[in-house]
Design a protein that fits this description.
The complex is a heterodimer of chains A (273) and B (257).
Chain A: H1 2-11, H2 33-50, H3 62-75, H4 77-109, H5 111-124, H6 133-140, H7 145-169, H8 172-180, H9 185-223, H10 228-237, H11 241-269
Chain B: E1 2-12, E2 15-25, E3 30-34, H1 41-48, E4 56-62, E5 73-76, H2 88-93, H3 103-116, H4 132-145, E6 150-154, H5 162-175, E7 182-186, H6 190-196, E8 199-203, E9 210-215, H7 220-223, H8 229-252
């Protein structure tokens, strides 16, 4: 048996190419593929609308949405709603982020703050913050404050979590290195912990930007005269689907712009990666 | 300035890691610390450098450090411990930032340290752009910038390939040649110990105790010569025979981490 096997291999002197078996899963993204797909979907949608296949009351054609946006812009209503939303998001996000960064660093750096902070954050983080809006209206009145506070709360918890996770992820060997040179605590925080935690903090900004957008729309739907959320709700109530979708498109563009800004910040601040 | 390990013992919980270690690194002397894996070599170095509190005993300094020393006990780390967001020059300058030195004085120290390690042309490079050997040169350059009396080197070459290791060993020989700096040099590589050290402290398996202190009977300059190779190999064999059986036991030990 063994002899025969040896014989067979000895006779078989044909050369064969080694079959390529793969180089690991490496999905390569094409530069324009996504845009082409998007354009294709919009074209099909437009064609379906123009051909009357889709009832414009349920799904107006892209051209109708663009027209609605143009008319909103011309009448000044777009800016009125957008500025109201931007103000709420801007102030709420900044307040929540500032508090979240401070608390996140405290939890990351102090044993006492960690013990207290993580317990509170674990208990309060899962609460949908929009559920607190009625309470905040009771506390702060019916003006801008409760909406801003809702956004700030939502942003605060996510920021605090991403910041202390970022601080935890700073390689301990770098901190030990700094201590071995007698570098003072404040300098270690400024020159080692802060830049080390920055990737996680910026990644957290992406999450908090979408949290802020979600909360501003929800808060405006509950109680606001102006704002993209209020506008979308009114359009829905009046069955003005083109206006409704115009609002949705504006929200989408806003999200994209914020994403691009954070991407730009990452490129500028994390060029060393 | 001498560095003294004074009856140092250390436990991690119930696990005894070091047991009554005493020796002295005299001014300008290079002492290698070798032993089987897990014998507490790196733990001992952390204790000596004040990065870990021993369970009992203490690291001590005798005599004044050189007047211009900014950090008499300075580490060179196995994993280099470079700030990835800082350039080579910024990494070397990092331990000087909190000192009283002016920016001009700091720059002069940085340039001198970069020159001594052959990094002058790489001052604006980021660590990720450098090879392992060049990264460790940055670590050494950073250590030199603070003018240490004693270098605490924790397996500084173990993350490098053998050719780079050889080149950096030559650098160490050059840097230690004038006897101005002493060093405690932790390594598992007996060739490094025999090439660089004046004395070699051989530790036993956990808990690490001093088994023997071997004096290397040649100057460092002599050891680079071909004629010395045989003597160095004999020395390595002598140390290996002290460690071998325990190294086998250490390798077979089941980890309960």
């Amino acid at each position: 048996m063994l002899d025969r096997a040896t014989d067979t291999s000895a006779k078989d002197d044909t050369t064969r190419r080694v079959r390529f078996r793969g180089a690991g899963f490496v999905p390569a993204s094409s530069r324009f593929g996504g845009w082409i797909a998007l354009a294709l979907v919009i074209a099909i949608w437009q064609a379906a609308g123009s051909a009357g296949i889709v009832n414009p009351l349920f799904l107006p054609a892209p051209s109708a949405i663009v027209r609605a946006i143009y008319e909103l812009a011309m009448s000044g209503a777009l800016w009125q709603h957008l500025s109201a939303s931007l103000l709420r998001i801007g102030v709420g996000w900044l307040l929540g982020t500032a508090a979240g960064v401070v608390v996140g660093f405290a939890i990351g750096l102090s044993r006492l703050a960690r013990g207290v902070g993580i317990t509170f954050i674990s208990a309060l983080f899962p609460i949908p913050k929009i559920a607190l809006l009625p309470l905040l209206i009771l506390w702060l009145g019916i003006g801008e404050e409760p909406k801003i506070a809702t956004i700030a709360l939502g942003v605060f918890f996510s920021t605090a979590i991403s910041v202390y996770s970022g601080v935890d992820a700073v390689p301990r060997n770098l901190i030990r290195m700094a201590q071995s040179f007698n570098v003072p605590f404040a300098t270690i925080v400024r020159k080692v912990v802060w830049p080390g935690a920055l990737p996680a903090i910026l990644a957290g900004f992406r999450i908090t930007a979408s949290v802020a957008l979600l909360l501003v729309v929800s808060a405006e739907m509950i109680g606001a005269q102006y704002g993209i959320g209020a506008f979308v709700l009114q359009a829905g109530n009046l069955m003005q689907t083109d206006q409704l979708l115009a609002g949705v498109v504006i929200l989408s563009v806003f999200g994209l712009v914020v994403g691009k800004v954070i991407g730009w910040l990452e490129t500028r601040l994390l060029h060393w990666r | 300035m001498d560095l003294i390990a004074n009856h140092i013992s250390h436990h991690f919980g119930d696990l005894a890691v070091l047991d009554d270690i005493s020796f002295t690194v005299s001014s300008g002397e290079v002492v290698a610390i070798v032993g089987p894996s897990g014998c507490g070599k790196s733990t001992l170095l952390s204790i000596l450098g004040g990065l870990l509190q021993p369970t009992s005993g203490a690291p001590e300094l005798r005599g004044a450090p050189p007047a211009d020393s900014l950090n008499p006990l300075t580490f060179v780390f196995q994993d280099f411990a470079l700030l990835p967001w800082a350039t080579v020059a910024e990494n070397v300058e990092f331990p000087l930032l909190h000192t009283q030195l002016s920016a001009v004085q700091r720059r002069a120290l940085v340039e001198d340290a970069l020159r001594r390690t052959g990094l002058t042309d790489f001052r604006k490079t980021y660590p990720k752009q450098l090879s392992g050997g060049m990264r460790q040169r940055v670590g050494i350059s950073r250590a030199l910038a603070v003018k240490p009396a004693i270098l605490l080197m924790d397996e500084p070459l173990s993350a490098l390939d053998s050719q780079t290791r050889e080149l950096l060993m030559e650098d160490f020989v050059r840097l230690l040649a004038d006897g101005g700096m002493g060093a405690a040099y932790v390594t598992h590589n007996l060739e490094e110990a025999a090439r660089l050290a004046d004395r070699i402290v051989v530790l036993s398996r956990r808990p690490g105790r001093i088994r023997e202190v071997v004096t290397v009977p040649m100057t460092r300059a002599e050891r680079g010569e071909t004629a010395a190779r045989e003597k160095l190999l004999a020395l390595q064999d002598q140390i290996w025979s002290l460690i071998r059986n325990e190294a086998i036991d250490a390798e077979r030990e089941v980890q309960h981490a």
